[in-house]
Structures are given as C-alpha cells and as structure tokens.
Amino acid sequence: MRKRSSVFIAKNRLKTLVLSDRVHCIPSAYDKIQRELYEALSKYMELTEDDFHMEISRTQVVITFAGD
Amino acid sequence: MGEVIVITSGKGGVGKTTTTANIGAGLTRFDKKVAVIDTDLGLRNLDVVMGLENLIVYNLVDVIEGNCRLKQALIKDKRYENLYLLPSAQTKDKTAISPGQMKKLTAEMKEEFDYILLDCPAGIEQGFQNAVAGADRAIVVTTPEVSAIRDADRIIGLLEQSGMKQLDLVINRIRMDMVKRGDMMSVDDVTEILSIPLIGAIPDDEHVVIGTNQGEPVIGLDSKAGQAYLNICKRIMGVEVPFMDLESSSGLLSKLTHLFKKD
C-alpha cells in the first residue's frame, strides 16, 4: 500500500485507537506491557526478543513465542 | 422456533435502520415470517424508512406496559406479505422498558415469527442493553471510516462480554472507486481490524436514498445494494453465497470509457 495514501494513515490510526480502547489505557502502555511481560517471562524461560510476540484482542492477551 | 437478531453499530448514521428494513423485507422473499422492532425509544425511524409512519396506532412501550395486545401494535407491511413492524414510542425515553421485559417479549414473538430483527439505537446505554438482551445473534454494521470502525470494535467487545453466541459484520457504503485509489479502506482492511466473520458488503448506492425517499426497501428496486442485501438474507439462513463483485456495477458506457482511459 502506498505510504502516502489516506487508507495507510487511517489504518495506522485505527490500530492505535482500537488497541488503547481494548486495554483501557494510553497507546504507549502497549509497548510497556510488552516490555515488562517479556522481562518477567525471560527470567524463567529461554526467550529472545525476536521470538516473543504479544497480541491484544478484545477479550484476551495472547503471548506467543517460538524457538527451541 | 424463531431467531432473534439485533442489528447494532455503536456509531449512529451508518445504516442500521436501512439494514434492518432491507434484511426484514428480504427474508420474506424466502417465505419467512418476519417482525422488525424499532427499539430506539424517543427517536423512531424504522417506520419512516419502511413507509408505514401513517399506520401507527400502538407501539413497543404500549405492548410492554400492557396497554394493548401484541397483535394490535404490529403493523402489516404494505408491500411485503409476512413482514410486520413493531414501532417504537416517540414520546417515551429509554428507561421506559428494561432488558428483562425485552427478553420476555422476544421470547413470546419467537413462537410466531421465523425471524425477529431488532433495530438497535446508537450508543452503548440502556437502549443498547435492551435490544441486546433478547437477541440470539448480532449483526454489527459499520462503514469504512475510522470513527465507525472504532465504535464497532467497542460494540463487538461488549457483545462478546455479554456472551452473544454469533456475531457477523456488515460493511456499508463501500465506494470501489475510492478503495482503488487508496482513499477508502477495503472490505479486507476492515475485517482485518475487527476480526469477526463478514456477512455482507454493501456498495454505496443512490438507490438507497431513493428507496428511503419513497419509504420502500431498496431490495424492491433493481440495484446493487438490493442484491447485496438479498445475499445477506441467504447467508443469515445458512446458505453459502459468494461475495459479489462490487466493481462491476458500471454499465456498458463506463466500461468502454474505462477501456479507453489511460492510467
């Protein structure tokens, strides 16, 4: 998709909006949650940042990790 | 035993009432007996869209308060056999009925109708709670705009929390010319964000305005939007229908113009 198209802008704005609506917090909290969850889990599990992925849906927070 | 479907959106003005009227009329084409209920207390519109505004005697609140029997309040549609409207009250506010009363009413109506469609008011307040209470499944209507999609996401979240069994999405007023040049979100863009099953995509069609002017559902007019609504009806009944090509609306002339146009 062209980076200057208005749809590109709309989708980015929506993704941020929907995310903060879903977790009831400011958009920047998403990064903090992800960071802190990663740090907490990596104390007990072998994780790399590339393997770690967090997704927030309307009813759940899904953490996925791949690797050995 | 009938099925109760709530038509909801969160944001106002995205086409809930038009969708309710057209799905209601459309389902009767497949020999279903259908009742549509306007649950927007104080701001009734469904009667006007269906062209039945002059036939109202009793309304939803009268039925719930026991001022009349259900049969007396139901208005038989002029055009579609087996289509009935239960209009909203224009003078009452949203506290006049409770979710429990709606549940009781729809349960009673399920005995007589194959489908009961609830036209939900905008917002997430009591009117929404009332409409949702009696429903077995929900159809969420949105347009490809940031504000409408954001509200749809909130509504879907609330419906999921309330334990609604089935949720389907209708994307209304799509303009393929704008989608093509990257100025309107496509069906795929919207479903990617909302992640619930798509049950219909309605092109922006001037026939909808013409139909509303005349107080008649667009499915009765030869139109793209009408066809899209009929497809939704089939999918509601569990028939698999391929999604139509929203672009092929152009006639021979514009196809020829397109042929000669250089990009």
Mind telling me which CATH architecture of chain B this is?
Answer: 3-Layer(aba) Sandwich
As for the number of domains of chain A, it is 1
The count of DSSP E runs of length 2 or more, i.e. the number of strands of chain A, is: 2
Radius of gyration of chain B: 18 Å
Question: Helical residue percent of chain B?
Answer: 40-55%
Strand order of the largest sheet of chain B: 3-4-2-5-1-6-7-8
Which stretches of chain B are poorly predicted, pLDDT < 50 over at least 5 residues?
none
CATH overall fold name of chain B? Rossmann fold
Measure the end-to-end span of chain B: 55 Å
Our estimate of the beta-strand percent of chain A is: 5-15%
Silhouette of chain A: elongated
3D shape of chain B: globular
Q: Give average pLDDT of chain B, whole number.
A: 93
Can you count the helices of chain B? Answer: 12
Tally of separate helices of chain A: 2
The main β sheet of chain B shows up as: 8 strands, mixed
Which chains have the largest interface?
A-B, 18 and 20 residues
The CATH superfamily of chain B is known as P-loop containing nucleotide triphosphate hydrolases
**Class per helix and strand makeup of chain A:** alpha+beta
Low-confidence stretches of chain A: none
The helicity of chain A comes to 40-55%
GO cellular component, one term (chain B): cytosol
GO molecular function (chain B): ATP binding; ATP hydrolysis activity
Protein name (chain B): Septum site-determining protein MinD
Keywords (chain B): ATP-binding, Cell cycle, Cell division, Nucleotide-binding, Septation
Summary tags:
heterodimer, A: 68 residues, alpha+beta, two-stranded antiparallel ribbon, elongated, B: 263 residues, alpha/beta, Rossmann fold, 8 strands, MinE (chain A)
Sum this structure up briefly.
The complex is a heterodimer of chains A (68) and B (263). Chain A is α+β, with helices and mostly antiparallel strands and 68 residues long.
